[in-house]
Design goal:
With about 425 residues, the chain is α+β, with helices and mostly antiparallel strands. The protein has 10 helices and 26 strands. The strands form 7 sheets. Strands 6, 7, 8, 13, 14, 16, 17 and 22 form an 8-stranded mixed β-sheet that branches. The chain has a 5-stranded antiparallel β-sheet with strand order 4-3-2-1-5. The longest helix is centred in the first third of the chain and has 14 residues. It starts with about 30 loop residues before the first strand and ends in a 6-residue tail after the last strand.
């Protein structure tokens, strides 16, 4: 089935600002609370939020097989479960409805008042009920930088890393949408030169620039997803800030890996950009040496050219861009991550989320964490207001953005923005 929604000649009768992340060729999916306090599944064009529940009730999806309440829910899980054919039919239909040449809704003011909201009139929610969350470690540059800091630089990358996408299971209960503040965590750390740990607030809270992909129901327990089919089970992508307490991590990570240093908060952008929308921006990934085992081998363009940026916004002063990276640097692809995840028969469900791991590039400016940007705090970075940062300060807001662009269209994710607050004190 063709992806007619991607037609770059298409214009919308809704106004779309220049350089918007959300032209009619994007059509992402999310969940929002309306000014009438109704939670609904929606999409976005320009600076307008579109109520898909209202569209369905008014029969704009006639001819597409959907359950009666498909878009009148507080998550996208059921829609995602319907699979790739339904996603594409719905997205193509939305593009047709909002095409500049289609008068059906354009000229029906009564329906428009029910269906369309300004973005400032809605409150974005978590788009899916995330049953399981896995975070990978798939940037060779990031893994190399971290390895150089904690091990012999000659053995920065461990042997297993080059043969499979490594990951760990995170905590879905603390995944929050953009705009929700995060508290500095309290945990055990081992002060330098000491042998006895202490309990207290982390002194080294960091961001990690990541993306994540959202899956549909993919397999039954015991079944591996072949690499040739993996992309069929990936609904779309979001931006992800994998908050990390470096000092807590340093003390706890051996032998089982991250625990409390990671699961205190994970922030994601609220709009899921579909793989169909990203299709024009496919690029080959880095050459993999040694060649992966046969079950992970793939040819062609399985990565995406997504420009990524991180900004630190201190309270009441100007912001500073501290990192510019790109998703195309990732060594292991999403298809390889999903196939490896199921290679032991692990079941994957609708709404599961898979983090990419920190996305770092080959230059210092493209490093995806403060750990790398300041090389473990040894080289503080200076912000535009004259202050310095080794890690993230209380009341700093971390803003991550991402977009794809070619000569014809720009497809973006909006942003994931979250302020770091002091430790939570129970009253």
């Amino acid at each position: 089935m063709p992806i007619s929604a991607n037609d770059t000649n298409r214009k919308s009768w809704l106004e779309v600002p220049t350089h918007s992340d959300f032209p009619i060729q994007n059509i992402p999916f999310g969940v929002f609370l309306t000014k009438e306090n109704v939670v609904t599944v929606g999409t976005r064009i320009g600076d307008f939020a579109i109520d898909l529940g209202a569209l369905q009730q008014l029969n704009y999806f006639s001819g597409i097989e959907l359950t009666d309440d498909m878009f009148m829910q507080d998550t996208l899980n059921d829609f995602i479960s319907d699979g790739k054919k339904t996603w594409r039919l719905v997205r193509n239909r939305i593009a047709d409805i909002f095409d500049a040449n289609n008068p059906q809704l354009r000229d029906n003011q009564k329906h428009r008042d029910i269906i369309i909201f300004k973005m400032e009139e809605v409150e974005m929610q978590l788009p899916v009920l995330i049953g399981d969350y896995t975070d990978f470690y798939s940037s060779k540059e990031h893994a190399s930088n971290v390895g150089k800091m904690i091990r012999d630089p000659e053995n920065a990358i461990l042997p297993n890393w080059q043969h499979m996408p490594l990951g760990y299971h995170g905590r879905s209960s603390t995944i929050v949408p953009s705009g929700i503040p995060v508290h500095r965590p309290i945990g055990q750390t081992l002060p330098h030169g000491e042998t006895t740990p202490v309990i207290g607030s982390s002194r080294a809270v960091d961001f990690e620039l990541e993306t994540a992909f959202i899956t549909t129901d993919a397999n039954i327990m015991g079944e591996m997803i072949p690499i040739s089919e993996a992309s069929d089970y990936i609904f779309g992508m979001v931006l992800l800030n994998d908050w990390t307490a470096r000092d807590i991590l340093k003390w706890e990570y051996m032998p089982l890996g991250p625990f409390l240093s990671k699961n205190f908060a994970t922030s994601i952008s609220p709009w899921i950009v579909t793989i169909d929308a990203l299709d024009p921006f496919r690029v080959p990934g880095p050459k993999q040496v040694p060649s992966p085992l046969p079950y992970l081998q793939q040819k062609g363009k399985h990565s995406f050219d997504i420009n990524l940026e991180v900004t630190i916004q201190p309270e009441n002063t100007e912001s500073t861009v501290v990192s510019k990276s790109n998703f195309k640097y990732m060594y292991w692809t999403m298809n390889q991550q999903l196939t490896h995840h199921t290679s032991n028969g692990c079941r994957i469900n609708s709404g599961d989320m898979m983090g990419s791991g920190t996305i770092s590039g080959p230059t210092k400016e493209s490093y995806g964490s403060m750990l790398e940007l300041t090389w473990g705090g040894k080289n503080p970075i200076q912000l535009n207001d004259g202050s310095e940062r080794k890690f993230v300060n209380d009341n700093d807001t971390i803003i991550m953005t991402g977009f794809c662009q070619n000569s014809q269209v720009r497809i973006g994710f909006g942003e994931v923005s979250s302020k770091l607050l002091p430790p939570f004190v129970r009253k």
